[in-house]
Amino acid sequence: MAERVALGMIGCGFFAQNHLNAWQDLKPEGVDIVAVCDVDPERARAAAEKFGVPRWYTDAAVMFRAEQLGLVDIATQMQSHLPLVKLALSHGVPTIIQKPFGQDIAEVREMVAAARAQNTFLAVHENFRFQKPLRRIAEIVRSGAIGTPTWARVSFRTGYDIYAGQPYLAEQQRFVLIDLGVHVLDVARVLLGEVEHSTAELQRRNPKARGEDTATMLLRHTSGAVSVVECTYGSRRLPDSFPETLIEVEGDKGAIVSRIGNKVEVTINGRMEVLDEDPAVLPWAERPWHVAQESVLATNRHMLEALRAGRPAATSAEDNLKTFALVEAAYLAAGKVKPQA
Ligand SMILES: NC(=O)c1ccc[n+]([C@@H]2O[C@H](COP(=O)([O-])OP(=O)(O)OC[C@H]3O[C@@H](n4cnc5c(N)ncnc54)[C@H](O)[C@@H]3O)[C@@H](O)[C@H]2O)c1
After folding, report:
1. What percentage of the chain's residues is helix, strand, coil (to nearest 5)?
2. What is the largest CA-CA distance in the chain?
3. Can you spell out the DSSP letters for 33-44?
């Protein structure tokens, strides 16, 4: 039997509820949530009560000194990621950090270097590639069934009121690209491999938002394949696909097209089959979030397995640096950020 993992959770806000539910589901697989921490004492206490966690803290430094953690999961907003990751690594605690990894690439590089110097597990909770339909599409592409992939579209277009659950997004100067673009760019890397050239256009369609709410990217991958990667919180189309990422991939033997409802159409050698990849609605999940919520469980399970096997996660710090570099490149290409001297 593998040793049990004592988990500490930092940040008990909106999205952390999914993490906490998922970790609780992983209790039979050897995870114990031993402590939760939030600077807001009400949130920390409420999470401890709801999930039967023995201890709660309002200061992560105090938590690290008091607890013997085998893993820490950080689900705070990006401005706190660098100091919290450095704190966790200074205690030698394997660490999972929510996306976006950092506020900019300099912070991301600093965290990657710190994990390398400490030789400590650091992974990014990049969950889109763990969504059931996306896992299946990646598997089909990898199997070679559609031949060599030459073109793809990765698309997340919604008019869902994202500001209701995450009001801070309206205030971010770097908005949809760093928040959502980071997910869809990661999926493009998973499907078509690394990128050698990219360009981007950003738009602000909703005056409520301070930053860009729409991003359209065009990538050339090192394989020669090309992808269009797009995301918006400003779409008015119906039916609204929130929170699904819709994919098209074309290869020399076939194609894959996903449709709303987590349906995946696979055409191989001129024959089309429709796969139903709608995930289970977990007891703590609700439609339409269930595809995201099931992916949190799949992501956490992957993290646990990688940690125990002593290997980096698929979305390790080093891997996510490559995705983050695409975000930074898109801001540069769109002229939002002045190049460093
Ligand atoms: N992967 C996804 O699909 C997905 C979806 C939504 C949000 N997110 C990400 O999750 C992260 C959190 O977003 P949210 O909407 O839950 O934010 P939130 O503001 O609701 O929650 C963050 C919590 O962290 C706490 N906090 C802040 N600094 C802290 C510190 N130093 N120590 C302890 N607690 C601290 C806050 O008090 C708050 O309760 C963001 O990075 C966001 O991008 C990811």
Report:
1. 40, 25, 35
2. 62
3. EEEEE-SSHHHH
Residue range 215-265, pLDDT digits in tens = 999 999 999 999 999 999 999 999 999 999 999 999 999 999 999 999 999
Q: Report the CATH number that the domain containing residue 82 is assigned in CATH.
A: 3.40.50.720
- Find the mean pLDDT for residues 105-112: 98
Domain containing residue 168: 128-278+322-333
pLDDT at 338: 53
211: CATH:
3.30.360.10
Most informative mutation of 15, 21, 125, 129 for ligand 1 (most atoms within 8 A of CB): 15
Measure CA 113 to chain center: 21
Q: Residue 2: its pLDDT value, please?
A: 80
> Residue 3 in 3-state DSSP?
coil
How far is residue 333 from each of residues 4, 188, 190, 229, measured CA to CA in Å? 46, 18, 22, 14
For residue 94, give Cα distances in angstroms to 53, 106, 250. 20, 21, 39
How many domains, the chain? 2
Query: Could you tell me the end-to-end alpha-carbon distance of the chain, in angstroms, rounded to an integer?
Result: 54
For a mutational test of ligand 1's pocket, the pick from 9, 10, 14, i.e. the residue with the most ligand atoms closer than 8 A to its C-beta, is 14
How confident is residue 11, by pLDDT bands cut at 50, 70 and 90?
very high
Cα dihedral 169, 290, 243, 264 in deg (nearest 10): 160
d(CA 249, CA 246): 10
99 lines ligand 1 (CB under 6 A): yes
The answer to pTM > 0.90 is yes
